[in-house]
Amino acid sequence: MSLKDLTKPWTAFNYGFLDESAKRELRRKMLKAIAIPGYQVPYASREVPMARGWGTGGLQVTLTLLKPDAVVKVIDQGADDSVNAVSIRKFFNRVGGSAETEDTSQATIIQSRHRVPEEKLRADQVLVLQVPNPEPLRPVQPDMSIAREMHGDADYGQLWLVLYEQLVKSGRIMQGTEYPSLVNGRYVITPSPIPRWDVKKLHQAEHLTFLSAGREKRIYAIPPFTNVEPLVFDDVPYRVEDHQDKTCYRTDVTGFFMNELPQEDGSSLYELSDSNFGIKHLKNSQGETLTIGETWYKNGRMD
Amino acid sequence: MQVTLTPTATDCRTNTAFEVMMWALSRPGSIGTLPGDGMLTAAECLLDNECTFHVQDDAPFQKALIQSGARCGPMSDVDYIFGDFNTSAKVQTLRTVRTGTLQYPDNSATLFVSAFFGSGTHLRLTGPGVADHITLAVDGVDPSFWSVRDDIIRYPLGFDVYLVDGDQVVGLPRSTKIEVL
Amino acid sequence: MAYVATRGGEHAIEQAERLFRSDLGKISAARVSEIKTSLPYLVDRVMGEASLYEPDLAALALAQAGGELSEAVLLLRAYRTTQPRIGYAKTIEQADLFTVRRISAAFKDIPGGQILGPTLDYSHRLLRVEVLTGEDYVPEPVIASETPAPAEQPSLTAWQKAQGLIADHATDDVAPENIPDLTREPLLFPAPRAHKLQSLARAETGGVLALGYSTMRGYGDIHPTVNELRLAEAPVRLRHPNGTVFNAGRVRVSQAEIITKSAKLELGFSATFGWNEVKVISAATLDRASAQDAPHAASTEEFVLYHTEPVESSGFCIHFKLPHYVTFQSSLDAIRRVKADNVENGKAPEPVNEKEPAL
C-alpha cells in the first residue's frame, strides 16, 4: 500500500458537503432513531457552514438524505421565503444539486423550523424538524446525564407535576409550543417548538419525521404510523391554539394556524402561517388552478 | 465552492442504499430493493473505521468488510452481525449480542440475516411503521429465531434486524411485535 | 400580495452580506499573509478553538470574518469537518517537544532549568503612541545566550513522580487510532478523559478563563500553582504505509500543569494548539476542579464542557435574532385564554407565571 492508495483526488468539498465518515455516522444514528421511536440518539454533529442554532441539526439530516433528484422545501416559522429558509435551501442546491420547491406536495424532503405544513404529508415524504432543545426534561432537570437516566426509567413524574402546577395556578396548561408528547408509549419527546396545532399531525402519520438538534447533538425520529400523544390529564383535554375560527385577511381561508398582525388601531389581522398554502389559495383566487392537497385540519378541526 | 457538485458512482450507490434501508426500517415488513448485492451494499453505506462487525463463516465477505476499516470481533461485542441463522444452534448464539443499556439502548447490535421472501414461516407484524398489521413469509431463517428474538428484546433494549434476500431487504426494528402464524 | 413583499428579504440578506464584505474590502494573499505574521497569537487562538492547525487557513478565516472571532472559528471548523482523515500521528511525550518557554512556579529552579522564552510577563504595558505619528517602533535585538537552553526538556512531573511527590496513575495503552475522538463522537458523561482534554483544548478562551477564574477566586477548593507551563513546537510524526516513521512538520502547542494541595498533591492538565497561556492555565485548573466534589458550576464537568464550546455557545446566542413569531403566537394564545377564563369567572386577572420553554 502507498500513500496514494489512501487518498483520492483533491476536491474542495464532497457531494452533499459532509464527508463519508460523517454521512455514515448519521446514517447509523438515523436508523437507530427509527428503531427506537422518540429515543434521543447522541451523534457527533459535525460543524457545517452555518452557525449552531440556525438549523445545523436539520441540515445534517437533509444533507445525508440528499440526492440529485431530491426536491427540497425549507420553511422557517411556516414561511418558505423567510431569509434563513432561503439561505438553507440555496445551500442544498449548491452542495447537492437538488431541486428547490416551495410547494409542499412537490417536495421529497421538507426541512422546517417550528411548523408542520397544513397539507397532509405523504408516505414518500420526509419531514426534518430543526430542534433547539431536544430534552423535554430540561425544565425539571437541566443535568443531561440525570435526564437520560430518567428517560431510561421512563420516569416522567416531574414533568406531569409541572403540567399539574400550571393547571392549578392558571386553570390551564400553559405550555405553548414544544408540548411534551409520549411516543410509541415509551419516550416523552419535545416535538420541537411547533405549535400545539401541529403536534397532532405527527400522530399515526403516513410520513417519516426526523428531529435533529445540531448544537445539542441528539437525533430522534417518529416513524410512520406511530403513536404521538401529548401529555394530558384524562379530564382536561388537549387544546390546540384557538385559531379554528380565524380568517386569513388575504385569502379568506378559515380554520388553519395563523400569524397575528397587530394593527395601529389596536385590532389584529390574521394571515395563514403556512405561506405556500396561502400563496396557492391566493393564486387560485386569481384564476390559476393549483392543486391544494388534502389538509390535516378540516373546518378548523382534526379528529 | 462555485459549482454544483455532482455525486460519484459511490455517492449514488450508498445514498440510495441508505434510503432503501431507512424506508425498510420505517415500514417493517415492506420489501425494499438495494442497488446491488444486499449484504455488501448495506455494509458499504454504514460501516467504516468507527464500527465493529462479525461475519459468520464467510471469509471472503469478512475480508471485503475489513477493507471498510471496520474491525472484526466476536458476536457479543460488535455493532453489526452478518450471517445465516438457519439452524437452532446458530440462533442460540444470538443470546450474547449487545442489546444496549437503559441509558443508551442504541448501544446495541444490528443483524443482517440471510433469508428468502415469499414462502416459509408466516409472520404477522404490528408496531410503529405498520398501519394495523402486515404479514410476511420468510424462509431460510430457523423458526426458533422469532421466539429467541422475542426473549431477548426487552424494549427499548434489544437488537434490530434486516432480512436480506439477494438485493431485497426487509427491516425489523426492535419496536416491531412479531407473531408467528 | 404581501407574501411577495417578504421576498424582498432574499435581496436584503444578499445586500447585507455585501455590505459587511465591502466594509472589509478586497482580501488578498498579502492581507492574509500580513495577518499571519503580525497576529500570530490571534491565529493561534483561532486554530486552538477550531482544532485545526493551519496558520494560512486560520489567517484567511480571520480576514474573511474581519476579526470576528466566533465567525473565524466557525469558518475553520466548517472547513475542518470536510477534510478526510488519512492518518494518525504518533503519540509524543513532553520530552519530545521543541520547547521555547518552560517555567514552574512550584520550585525556584527545576531540572532542565527555567526558560523564560518569549513573554510580555515582565513588560511595562505602555502604548507606543509615537508609531501613530510616523515613528516606527523597532524592537531591540535579542542578545543570544552564551549557553543556549537545550531544545528538549524533561517533564517536571516525571521528576516529582520519581520522588514520590505525586501519585502515578496507570495509563491505558491505547493505539492512536483508538483514542476516543470528540470530533467524531458525541460528548457523553461521565466523559472519557480524552474527550475532556480535547473539549478543553478546543474550548473558547474567554469562557475557559471566566470559569477557571471563578474556581481560582474561591468557587471551589482549587489553589492552583503552576507546576509547569510550556510553549513549544511539537513534532508531528506519521507512519508511512511502508512502515517508516517520518516527521511531517511541527505545530505550536501550549501546555499547563497546575498543582493543588489538598490531602496530597494533585495535578490538572491542559494542552492546546498554538501559544495561549491564559487558556491552558485556566483549563488545567478546570480539569483539576472537575475531579473534586464541589457544589459549584465550574467544578461540574458537564457544565464546563458544554458552556465553553465556542461554536455552540456563540451560535445559540446569535440564533435568538431569528424570528420566533410562531412560538410567540402559541404562548400568546395560552395567556389570552387564561385572561378570558378569569373574566368569565369574575376573577381579577392574575399574573401569569409560565415556565418559558427554551427555544
Polypeptide structure, described:
- The complex is a heterotrimer of chains A (303), B (181) and C (359).
- A seven-stranded mixed sheet of chain A has the order 1-9-8-5-4-2-3. Chain A has a three-stranded antiparallel sheet with strand order 7-6-10, with no helix packed on it.
- Chain A has two domains: 20-230, Rossmann fold, CATH 3.40.50; 242-294, no CATH class.
- The N and C termini of chain A lie far apart (64 Å).
- Chain A contains eight helices and twelve strands.
- Chain A is of the alpha/beta class and 303 residues long.
- Chain B has a single domain (9-180), classed as Bacterial phosphonate metabolism protein PhnH (Rossmann fold), CATH 3.40.50.
- Chain B contains five helices and ten strands; from the N terminus they run αβαβαββαβββαβββ.
- Chain B has helices at 9-26, 38-46, 59-66, 88-92, 144-152; strands spanning 32-33, 52-55, 71-72, 80-83, 110-114, 116-126, 134-139, 160-165, 168-172, 177-180.
- In chain B, strand 6 and strand 7 (134-139) form a beta hairpin.
- Chain B is globular, with a radius of gyration of 16 Å.
- Chain C is 40% helix and 13% strand.
- The two termini of chain C are 31 Å apart.
- The model of chain C is unreliable at 1-6 (pLDDT under 50).
- Classes of the chains: A alpha/beta (303), B alpha/beta (181), C alpha+beta (359).
- At the A-C interface, helix 1, helix 2, helix 4, helix 6 and strand 11 of A face helix 2, helix 6, helix 12 and helix 13 of C.
What does the secondary structure layout of this molecule look like, with pairings?
The complex is a heterotrimer of chains A (303), B (181) and C (359).
Chain A: H1 3-6, H2 20-35, E1 41-42, H3 56-65, E2 71-76, H4 83-96, E3 99-100, E4 109-113, E5 126-130, H5 144-152, H6 157-170, E6 181-183, E7 187-189, H7 196-199, E8 208-213, E9 218-222, E10 228-230, E11 258-262, E12 268-272, H8 275-285
Parallel strand pairs in A: 2-3, 2-4, 4-5, 5-8
Antiparallel strand pairs in A: 1-9, 6-7, 6-10, 8-9, 11-12
Helix pairs in contact in A: 2-3
Chain B: H1 9-26, E1 32-33, H2 38-46, E2 52-55, H3 59-66, E3 71-72, E4 80-83, H4 88-92, E5 110-114, E6 116-126, E7 134-139, H5 144-152, E8 160-165, E9 168-172, E10 177-180
Parallel strand pairs in B: 2-3, 2-4, 4-5, 5-8
Antiparallel strand pairs in B: 1-9, 6-7, 6-10, 8-9
Helix pairs in contact in B: 1-2
Chain C: H1 2-5, H2 8-24, H3 29-38, H4 40-50, H5 55-65, H6 69-80, E1 98-103, H7 156-162, H8 193-201, H9 205-217, E2 225-239, E3 245-261, E4 265-273, H10 277-289, H11 301-307, H12 310-319, H13 325-344
Antiparallel strand pairs in C: 1-2, 2-3, 3-4
